TrEMBL record:
PROSITE patterns hit by this protein: COMPLEX1_ND1_1, COMPLEX1_ND1_2
Subcellular location field: Cell membrane; Membrane
GO biological process, one term: aerobic respiration
Transmembrane portions of the chain: 20-43, 89-109, 129-152, 173-192, 204-222, 260-281, 293-314, 326-347, 359-377
Highest rank taxon of the organism: Bacteria
Keyword Nucleotide-binding annotated: no
Membrane topology: Multi-pass membrane protein
Source taxonomy: Bacteria, Bacillati, Actinomycetota, Actinomycetes, Streptosporangiales
Protein name: NADH-quinone oxidoreductase subunit H
Quaternary context: NDH-1 is composed of 14 different subunits. Subunits NuoA, H, J, K, L, M, N constitute the membrane sector of the complex.
MF GO annotations: NADH dehydrogenase activity; oxidoreductase activity, acting on NAD(P)H, quinone or similar compound as acceptor; quinone binding
Purpose of the protein: NDH-1 shuttles electrons from NADH, via FMN and iron-sulfur (Fe-S) centers, to quinones in the respiratory chain. The immediate electron acceptor for the enzyme in this species is believed to be ubiquinone. Couples the redox reaction to proton translocation (for every two electrons transferred, four hydrogen ions are translocated across the cytoplasmic membrane), and thus conserves the redox energy in a proton gradient. This subunit may bind ubiquinone.
GO cellular component terms, A-Z: plasma membrane
Amino acid sequence: MAGVLAADPTLADFGKDPLWIIIVKAVMVFLFLGLGVVFGVWFERKLISRMQNRYGPNRAGKFGLLQSVADAIKMGLKEDLFPRTVDRVLYLLAPVIMVVPAMLAFSIVPFGPVVSLFGVRTPLQLVDLPVAVLFMLAMGAVSVYGVVLAGWSSRSPYALLGGLRSAAQVVSYEIAMGLSFVAVFLFAGTLSTSEIVKAQGETWFVFLLIPSFLIYVICMFGEAARIPFDLPEGEGELVGGFQTEYSSSLKFALIMMGEYLHTFTASAMAVTLFLGGWRAPIPISWWEGANQGYWPVLWFLIKFVLTFSFIIWVRASLPRVRYDQLMSLGWKVLIPVNLAWILLVAGVRSVMLNEESRMIALGVTGVVVIGALAIWTRFDTVNQRRKEAQKAQAEAEFEELSEEPAAGGFPVPPLDLPHYHGVSRP
């Protein structure tokens, strides 16, 4: 185990690489994201098609592997149209703002331990920061500007509504997502992604912090705007959402790429913060060399693909929710539950780190739990009374309608309707 711990990167290992190694690692991350988007689209279409008992892409290339490549070439070569009323600068800039922050957010993801890359000892991670997780949240918030600008610059009501939906959705779910990370920070003692992976050497945080993980999974769908939370592009009510005025050209391809990169970042952060990062699962971790060399890259990719497959499975299984349900879940459920859970975790960590504050922490935790139960009981009682009042009002309205003249069991409108444009209607 000493060799495994020695291979764990720390913040001190970053900033020492020569420039050419940094360029090589940046190119490797870019190729991973570019190829990941191309074959991720194929994988999603293929997996959903098998769930729906059909073949999916099977014409372009073996098993349809070149279908996404053909689609990308087609969108890149199509005529680039500009609606007359758009703000051209922001209209062109919006897709770029969506893609670039998503790529930058992936730079803090650790793929493996310290290895020898072309003869240079370097961590398998482009960069790490003392506030790396906050950097990821900031990049996710910046990419929303691309969605908002895409909707506003299009000068279309449907696109604008999609952009406003995305802004409101990210505000609510970014708060809940950030709160779900607090428990991880309390246990890891750092915001560095490499240090968080190192802190999961004994036990993955998904087992210690199950509520935080479940809340993050829900917020992950809201943050990445994936079904069942893809309200910014709800086709049923917004035609196509914020990208309504973007033709199927290179700009549209960049928007789709930005959304996929957002999903990739959410999956990678789930693996890094809760699923042990690049560490091998049990029983593979019992092998002494499982977490050394380039083997951890394989474990990371397996976890990453499984997480991405879960997102696809949810898309194939659940319908889109209403917008009021989405916002109610974020503000009325996830954030209060998160706050109560953080107080509980903080109390437990205080007990673990300081024996003298054990009684104080237990007392505060007990008060918080009792207060939360009291608030929940009060809320449930008020909600029940509201439902009973609504039911009584509906029954009264039904009885009032049933007293009016009816035809075949249905109420008929009154015969003395008002005049319309001087013509009396019977």
